[in-house]
Design a protein that fits this description.
This protein is an all-alpha fold and 469 residues long. Helices cover 80% and strands 0% of the residues. Helix 3 packs antiparallel against helix 4, helix 17 runs parallel beside helix 19 and helix 18 packs antiparallel against helix 19. The protein is elongated. The two termini are 43 Å apart.
Length: 469
């Protein structure tokens, strides 16, 4: 983004008209010249004000005070459009920065036209090969990532990455940003093997360029931890996430969206590790902080409500979980639309709760909606699709529909093996569920084979992720 970039000085080119009349200057010419000078002085004062507003916006952005920054950014944009016209590099920068603020506030529909205007204007003014163009490509791609429009985000991120390599060389903080964001996209698409080398490259580059105490380094630690827990490598994830959280606190203070994000993700990691008592206070802290900083209606609030519901479900507190799941689902629909991976996730989670409560008829349509949406949005081959197949299979097993359950379990198992590897916890889950299905049908020998294979993987992961003390 360009909110933290140093401003380029504005150069005004003034056309001076000389009136030659035997050495005399007419009164009209004097009046005209004074008017031009006054206009120039007024325009310069307005642009100085816009520059001052932009600096205030940058400071508020760094503090995570996005809602306070938005009216100042709007005013800076208005001044620049009035003083410089609609087509100017500084106007494009203001459009880009306002788009950044809307994106951070979860106002994606407002952000998109600002980014696209900035992108088109920068192309016209700067050409097809410029660092500012690479920046806007990156930012628009990041917006599409948050909107779940992964297929639109990927080519933009690749364009930005390649342009930055050509313009900035192989070692630059902006190049590390591009690597980081492309890795996040690959992670969300279930392409973990492609994501890991990009994240480690970005982390190492940031250490070399920025040192051991920098916000970009904290971001890399945080994101690499997120990838590791998606891959079931919890023991590797925890120290990275705690390092990121402590660094954010030192650099940003206790009250900042980046701190809330780290609290949330550390809580999710503890959930996955079965450390529920440690997870709950972190989730409630994150939820309260999001609400204070970003308001009650924001995608991050919905994520935290969803994860708090997951925790209560795992703790057997079903009555507390249900309203949180429904709040998260409704908020996601309002903010993100009906067709988004987060909506599919909420449908899946609410269905899972209904399944545990024995409300199978309510669970089935939610599971099928979630599965179909994941296939449309993420493709046929994705960890979320494998998870949906497994969950629907388990529901059919509980309903006694064994012939419908088995092919779903088998598809889920094979997909998890292809995508995640033989030793991932999700593979163990699929094997255990197949064991349970065969046991229900009286196929004890096959059940034992699946059970033993699943237990072997669970023991292996337990050894890897064992927490002592």
């Amino acid at each position: 983004m360009s909110l933290n970039k140093s401003k380029r000085p504005t150069i005004w080119a003034t056309t001076l008209v000389s009136l030659l009349s035997v050495g005399l200057v007419t009164p009209q010419a004097t009046v005209g010249q004074t008017t031009i000078a006054q206009q120039q002085e007024s325009a310069q004062a307005q642009l100085a004000k816009a520059k001052q507003l932009s600096q205030q916006v940058t400071d508020l952005y760094k503090q995570g005070k996005y809602s306070e920054a938005i009216p100042l950014a709007q005013e800076a944009l208005r001044i620049r459009q009035q003083a410089l016209g609609e087509e100017h590099a500084d106007v494009a920068e203001s459009l880009n920065n306002l788009g950044e603020l809307y994106r951070e506030m979860g106002k994606y529909q407002e952000a998109e036209p600002l980014y696209t205007q900035a992108l088109e204007m920068r192309r016209r003014l700067l050409g097809d090969e410029h660092a500012d163009l690479a920046e806007t490509l990156n930012n628009l791609a990041l917006l599409y990532y948050f909107m779940g429009r992964y297929s639109e985000a990927e080519p933009l991120l690749n364009q930005s990455l390649e342009m930055r390599r050509r313009l900035l060389g192989k070692e630059h903080p902006d190049l590390a940003k591009s690597l980081n964001y492309l890795a996040l996209l690959y992670q969300s698409m279930g392409r973990y093997e492609q994501a890991e080398p990009l994240l480690t490259e970005a982390l190492e580059m940031r250490r070399r360029l920025l040192g051991d105490e920098h916000l970009d380094l904290a971001e890399s630690l945080h994101n690499l931890a997120g990838l590791y827990y998606s891959m079931g490598r919890y023991q590797q994830a925890e120290p990275l996430l705690t390092q990121a959280l402590e660094m954010y606190r030192r650099l940003l203070g206790e009250e900042h969206p980046s701190v809330a994000s780290s609290l949330l993700n550390l809580a999710v990691l503890y959930q996955l590790m079965g450390r529920y008592q440690q997870a709950e206070p972190l989730l409630t802290q994150a939820l309260e902080m999001w609400r204070r900083l970003l308001g009650k209606e924001h995608p991050s609030v919905a994520i935290t409500l969803n994860n708090l519901a997951v925790l209560y479900q795992l703790m057997g507190k079903y009555q507390q979980a249900e309203p949180l799941y429904t709040q998260a689902l409704e908020m996601r629909r309002r903010l993100l639309g009906e067709e988004h991976p987060s909506v599919a996730s909420s449908l899946n989670n609410l269905a899972g709760l209904y399944k545990l409560m024995g409300r199978y008829q309510q669970a089935e349509p939610l599971y099928t909606q979630s599965l179909e949406m994941n296939r449309r949005l993420l493709g046929e081959e994705h960890p979320s699709v494998a998870s949906s197949l497994n969950n629907l299979g388990l529901l059919y097993q509980l309903m006694g529909r064994y012939s419908e359950a088995e092919p779903l379990y088998t598809q889920s198992l094979e997909m998890n093996r292809r995508l995640l590897g033989e030793e991932h916890p999700s593979v163990a889950t699929s094997l255990n569920n197949l064991a349970g299905l065969h046991q229900s049908q009286g196929n004890i020998e096959q059940a034992l084979e699946f059970l033993e294979a699943g237990l072997d993987i669970q023991e292996l992961n337990l050894e890897r992720n064992l927490v002592t003390g």
